[in-house]
Amino acid sequence: MDLYEGLPEPVAKAWERGLTSGRAAMSRRRLLRAASLAAAGTTLAACGIPPAAGGKGGEGAEEAPDYSRKEKVLNFANWPLYVDVDEKNKKKHPTLDRFERESGIKVKYVEDINDNNEFYGKIKPQLAAGQSTGRDLICLSDWMAGRLIRQGYVQRLDPANMTHAVTNLEDRFRAAAHDPGRQYSYPWAGTACIVAYNKKATKGKKITSVSQLLEDDALKGRISMLTEMTDTVGLTMLDMGADSEHFTEDQFDAAIARIQKAVDRQQLRRFSGNDYLDELNSGDIAACLAWAGDIVQLQMDNDDIAFAVPDRGYLFGTDDLLVPAEARHQSNAEALIDYYYQPDVAAQLAAWVNYICPVTGAKAEMEKIDKELADDPLVFPDQHMIAKGKNFRPMSAKEEARYEEKFSKLIGA
Amino acid sequence: MTALAPLAGTSETPSAPQGGAGSDDGAGPGAGPGGGGRRRLTPYWLLLPAGLWLAVFFVAPLFYQASTSVQSGSLEEGFRVTWRFSNYSDALAAYGEHFLRSFGYAATATALCLAIGYPLAYMIAFRAGRWRNLVLVMVIAPFFTSFLIRTLAWKTILSDGGPVVGALSSLHVLDLTSRLGLTGDERLLATPLAVVCGLTYNFLPFMILPLYSSLERIDTSLHEAARDLYATPATTFRKVTFPLSLPGVVAGTLLTFIPASGDYINAQLLGSPNEQMVGNAIQKQFLNVLDYPTAAAMSFLLMALILIMVSAYMRKAGTEELV
């Protein structure tokens, strides 16, 4: 192997000339130095990051061997506070415990997903290297699920193992743009991004639109938006009369420019992840973009918390269950998905989690548990609410990179 | 990492004769007249653990980072080394403001740490008496909780409705600071002041400890001698104590300035979008934009700029005489 392999052509030629003729050829020391430099060059060039596995789009990972029969375990990674908790023993999860009893599968439930991007950064190296992530089931937002499907990092699910899920998934979740026909993903819960505010902090004033968040002087320095690009920009585009399901690049840019103006005016206190709740609760943040399920929970403790579904629509999405490539226990994972699509289990989960329930028949079950929640449009949306919910359209890899770049400039980094 | 194999392979061969030449000179460390081979090798054995550690966890990642910083491509198509050095200039053009802000905040925090830390270190070294150990423990005590938790605690302490903002506001301190552009609208959080204070708080022990250790070594009889020679306390400090504590000042400022420049937790938690530092930008490039080359180039730029500033500073401070 040539020492100067990997250097651009003219540079390599120069190396060669320099080493074999002229003064440089005389000095052994110089030769040694050149060798180590060239070696460094070779090494640098030998690195590189391979393309994301699929790249072909939606073909899914190759079938990994399934050890489900031999190993009755399931490694399930989820977001914090996203499953029911026993009132007496916070470490117990009634629905998961029942699943373990009924199926004989031991669930290792880990709450290690805090942010879609961070989690992707965490598992991507293993996925790219074709190794197991050590997780059999993960829960990610729809746009990130779309990325993993596009890149071929998830396993295709077998509908034969999930009869409840196939029958009970509500129709409006079936035609998901990022996974048409739900071949790779099943929703754990639906999410609605809406406007929320603290009545005490706004002095009783109602906050009902993104325009108010961005332009009301009374809220200066006391509003927050989300670090999730799809939610923040999507809702702003809706507010500007654009359709988040069919927007153009210009409309996207206009929304970014509008938020940028608010940032420059110091209208925004910050862009937050899941951690806006404390500040909304204390009133440091008077009004913000928020996830509906969080607000339902917060309202139980604090009467000052109110929310508004913007007239022009809210951003609707799902958090999807996926089986990552090279997972060892796919059938166990499918068994769990199927289990949660039984209406009574789904109702029990929704009663605690308070996010939108994607399971047909769960509303009837919820009426037995909690009448009030069964009528809450944030958990079981009515026709009016459903009509106002808009997705963020799926993006190609290039678009996604471009939009994330613009958004990350906006949020100050 | 397989990519390192060619490096190891090529550098081994040429370095073998060099080693031979070294032993002919007899200039190897520890090679006394009667020194056996084993004794001569001892220093190398002692270096081995740290050397291996640094090779695996510092040199190899640095190589990988250097490679990444000149790549181009996208996540889906993969990144390939194309010697795209414009990653550096692009990053500097797009995020120059973040670099400036980082160094500005870090320098301010370092100056504040020195102003707060020096008197305290002086007190511990010369005046604390039997309280000395207790005070030292108090300085170190914050390390028993995580960095993150401590910064989050400041969020609660400085919250808008909290006592600190209330008190400062009624004393009209906030009016003054917002006129200086440090705060705004009757709040402390999400302002430059909060970020700088957070940095100062978090890195203060790194200033105090080296200052203390170099002050503590000063022989107090020098102070007596100065007094005998009719030096006023101020002159004693200026001519005796401070010059002798300079190694501590240099070490403390470096230990504060360097990590503070790269910090992103304080800006993230205590700042608004207008106070984000270069660390935040690198994090976003890496995790959100997935532009690994730009993120790597920015990390290198940060390292290089810090290195330049630090070496200029060291030259000025003349560490050769101090150490």
Automatic annotation (TrEMBL), chain A:
Q: Where does it primarily localize?
A: periplasm
What CDD domains does the annotation carry? PBP2_PotD_PotF_like
Keyword check for Mitochondrion, yes or no.
Answer: no
What GO terms fall under cellular component here? periplasmic space
Q: Which GO terms describe its biological process?
A: polyamine transport
User: Do you know which Gene3D superfamilies this protein is assigned to?
Assistant: Periplasmic binding protein-like II
Q: Where in the cell is it found?
A: Periplasm
Spell out the protein name for this chain.
Spermidine/putrescine ABC transporter substrate-binding protein
Q: Which SUPFAM superfamilies match?
A: Periplasmic binding protein-like II (SSF53850)
From what organism does this protein derive?
Answer: Streptomyces reniochalinae
**Keywords attached to this entry:** Periplasm, Signal, Transport
Pfam families under this entry?
SBP_bac_8
- MF term (GO), any: polyamine binding
Automatic annotation (TrEMBL), chain B:
**Its membrane topology, per UniProt?**
Multi-pass membrane protein
Asked if Transmembrane is a keyword of the record, the answer is: yes
| Entry's Gene Ontology cellular component terms | plasma membrane
The superkingdom of the source organism is Bacteria
CDD domains linked to this entry: TM_PBP2
| Pfam families with a match to the protein in the record | BPD_transp_1 (PF00528)
Q: Where is the composition biased (Gly residues)?
A: 19-35
Which InterPro entries has this protein been placed in?
MetI-like (IPR000515), MetI-like_sf (IPR035906)
The ABC transmembrane type-1 domain covers which part of the protein? 99-311
Coarse class of the protein's main subcellular location:
membrane
Question: Any idea where this protein resides?
Answer: Cell membrane
Please list the GO biological process terms of this entry: transmembrane transport
Q: Give the Gene3D superfamilies listed for this entry.
A: MetI-like
Parts of the chain that traverse the membrane:
44-64, 103-122, 134-153, 189-212, 240-260, 295-314
Q: Which PROSITE patterns match?
A: ABC_TM1
Report the sequence similarity comment from the record.
Belongs to the binding-protein-dependent transport system permease family. CysTW subfamily.
Q: Which PANTHER family match?
A: INNER MEMBRANE ABC TRANSPORTER PERMEASE PROTEIN YDCU-RELATED, INNER MEMBRANE ABC TRANSPORTER PERMEASE PROTEIN YDCU-RELATED-RELATED
UniProt name for this protein: ABC transporter permease
